[in-house]
Amino acid sequence: MAAPCLRLGMKQLFKMPAAMGHQGRAYSTSQTFAEVLRLPKKQLTKLVYPLQELEQHLVPDSMPDLHLRVFDPSLEDISRAESVFASSARNRIEYISSAVRLDHAPDLSRPEVCFIGRSNVGKSSLIKALFSLAPEVEVRVSKKPGHTKKMNFFKVGKYFTVVDMPGYGYRAPEDFVDMVEAYLKERRNLKRTFLLVDSAVGITKTDNIAIEMCEEFALPYVMVLTKIDKSSKGHLLKQVLQIQKFVNTQTQGCFPQLFPVSAVTYSGIHLLKCFIANITGNLN
Ligand code: GDP
């Protein structure tokens, strides 16, 4: 019985253009969004709307609290957001500077978004994936936990600033709390904090400290679930439902919709870019 299905699958694979044949493993950074739009519907949904792809595996109405479409941009919106993240002579995307204290942070008036998460959660990889259309931007990705000990500021054209915060938890810098707390509390142009949680692990005690910090300062924040390519669909679904329940019942400031992403397959990256462009006022 399995053979005809397999043959059909292989046939479809061979019908795809070369770049798309790699879709199951990794998204090529040279692949433009126009090419993404030509993907078969199932693959496109998995790449662009990973939560909706997961939804298809739920028993209908079994989880009415799973927020799938609070932020539900069209493919046209997502395509427009891509240009915000594409580096060009007129839209320079570049590293600006690093700071260990808030008063050393660059004085910028543009809207700002920051990324926080425990060491090794995949923060540098995610930022690198967001900047895949600006390959000249150097975002260090390390195999050793805890290398990001400074706040790193990146300018995205005239649009906004992205801040890579130091990882917390194992081998976090001693002055981490002072640095991060002061930044989160006092940075006036901070529009949104993206709090990264490893989807394979779920919310850890260390993540809870960051969540409590965001809640205490009444910050608007968003939970991004990293490394979704690492888990089976069943495990991922279980984790997503658990984390969604946590967000629904235990948080005030967290955006109700989760953002699952993979820096390896690029699943969810386009949607996240579109969300960032939208909240910084650049999707008009
Ligand atoms: P950071 O310490 O939070 O900046 O984490 P990194 O971005 O340096 O990632 C930590 C480790 O996880 C590295 O070995 C990455 O290659 C790996 N990693 C990061 N993102 C992903 C992902 O989306 N999928 C998989 N499979 N591995 C990832």
Automatic annotation (TrEMBL):
Q: Which PANTHER family does the UniProt record give?
A: GTP-BINDING PROTEIN 8
Q: Does the keyword Ubl conjugation apply?
A: no
Q: Which CDD domains match?
A: YihA_EngB (cd01876)
**Which top-level group of life is the source organism from?**
Eukaryota
What family is it from?
Answer: Belongs to the TRAFAC class TrmE-Era-EngA-EngB-Septin-like GTPase superfamily. EngB GTPase family.
What InterPro entries does the record tag this protein with? Answer: EngB_GTPase (IPR052279), G_ENGB_dom (IPR030393), GTP-bd (IPR006073), GTP-bd_ribosome_bio_YsxC (IPR019987), P-loop_NTPase (IPR027417)
- For this UniProt record, give its keywords in alphabetical order, as a comma-separated list: GTP-binding, Magnesium, Metal-binding, Nucleotide-binding
* Cofactor(s) this protein cannot do without: Mg(2+)
For this record, an example GO cellular component is: mitochondrion
- Residue ranges of every copy of the EngB-type G domain listed in the record: 109-282
Q: Which HAMAP family match?
A: GTPase_EngB
Species assigned in the record: Marmota monax
The reply on keyword Electron transport is no
This chain's protein is named GTP-binding protein 8
